[in-house]
Amino acid sequence: MNRQTIKKIVLVFFAVVALLAVGVAAGLWWERSHVPDGGRDMPAGAEKTGRTVLYWYDPMVPTQKFDKPGKSPFMDMELVPKYADEGGDASTVKIDPGVAQNLGVRLVTVTRGALDTHVMATGIVDFNERDIAIVQARTGGFVERVARLAPNDVIQSGAFIAELLVPEWAALQEEYLALRAVGDPSLESAARNRMRLGGMPESLIREVARTGRIRNRISITAPRGGVIQALEVRPGMTLMAGQTLARINGIGTVWLDVAVPEAQAGSVRVGQAAEAAFAAFPGQAVQGRVTALLPALDDAARALRVRVELPNKNGQLRPGLSAQVSLKDSGGEPALRVPTEAVIRTGRRVIVIVAEAEGRYRPVEVTLGAESGSSTVILSGLDEGQTIVASGQFLIDSEASLQGIVARAANAMMTAPIALHEADAVIDEVSDAYVTLSHGPFKTLSMPGMTMEFPLANPQVAKGLKAGDRVRAAVRETDEGLLVEKLDKTGGAK
């Protein structure tokens, strides 16, 4: 093929391309000149499907509606059409009933009723400090004999402790017997009173009056059964009036010092029923009641100290034993309740999926109250009788997120509190912008204890703190990670 032939082929090719371009341009001109003005504002594909557009909206602000397409005034993105055949509104997601069944979606109704509180905690057995007997010498004397006892021995009521010789009693008794022999009732009564004032028990006075014999020795016995916590008497000792011989703590009842988590402290009251299960005695739960809420929290555990009184008839509950304690209460104020499994906690918000007609689902932001067992109180965001999703809600929430649907609080003017997560920590390093903490577990985040660096919300958070200080750290979740909002000093340097 010569050069002239190749040149002719190239010219023909360019001519064909030019003709095609002219044809396409003419076709576009004709289409534009014959399409109605309203069709220019229709979204791509609408003129082909014949679907009616109700309005346009920004997926990030679904409640704001627009009459025609264009750029969103809120975000740098195109508005999305809402079609008439979709039903619902831009803040809901539609799922086919068959798909919902395959996802295992289970619906429940929001109810109102009294919340039965149920708190589980750990307790340690201790002595009942109200059940104490102090054994003292009522008069001076000498210790002649002592029982074979030692501290921590368990004794019964009336058990022998020691025998005392009281020389002063001999003179008082002789005086009484002499005046009784005179036969003057007034003198005899006065002599009896002197014996009482001398510390002589009434039983010994009656015995002297009955037998007419001098009794200047007395046996000291236990006024109640229990554990000898202190024994301060030995043979040959000289005693002063009022001197303590022994301290006995009863064991008919014991106290259980229970540590209730701070978040559940409001669910406990005096008089509440308690059930204690001991690892040492499986299957033998002991019933008791709450007798006191101690005024100070346990700083280390951040827990309310609750005193539970338990019966101990057989004496098997000994100080130091640990128990799992169940504190139950019923009949509280009526409140909206939902299953705890229906609640989605994202860290910054709490969401419940509301089921509406025609297979539509709406994520709603709620405010939580107390939690008990399998139920949680809803303070705001839902109404009694609404249907919500109890199973499969995480998949629906994910679909809503993909569609740009944002959960809204029931009251748009309400500002939800920032969720803070707390843990005890020790400062390793600190600056105006960052702090390195060796922290315990953030339980509400299911985050174990570790050492890591956190950004500070502002320099004032760490003002006055230094490395080695023990603090209570409060953090919140952000899109960039955890941010330290508070550092409350709890003790001295490490």
Outline of the structure:
This protein has 494 residues and is of the alpha+beta class. It is built from 7 helices and 33 strands.
Your description of this structure?
With 494 residues, the protein is an alpha+beta fold. The protein is built from seven helices and 33 strands. The chain folds into six domains: 1-34; 43-90, no CATH class; 93-114 and 334-409, conserved putative lor/sdh protein from methanococcus maripaludis s2 fold (Beta Barrel); 135-244, RNA polymerase II/Efflux pump adaptor protein, barrel-sandwich hybrid domain (OB fold (Dihydrolipoamide Acetyltransferase, E2P)); 253-329, Efflux pump adaptor protein, beta barrel domain (Elongation Factor Tu (Ef-tu), domain 3, Beta Barrel); 421-493, OB fold (Dihydrolipoamide Acetyltransferase, E2P) (Beta Barrel), CATH 2.40.50. The strands form eight sheets. The protein has a six-stranded antiparallel barrel with strand order 7-16-19-18-17-20. Strands 4, 22, 23, 24 and 28 form a five-stranded mixed beta sheet that branches. α4 runs antiparallel to α5 (185-197).
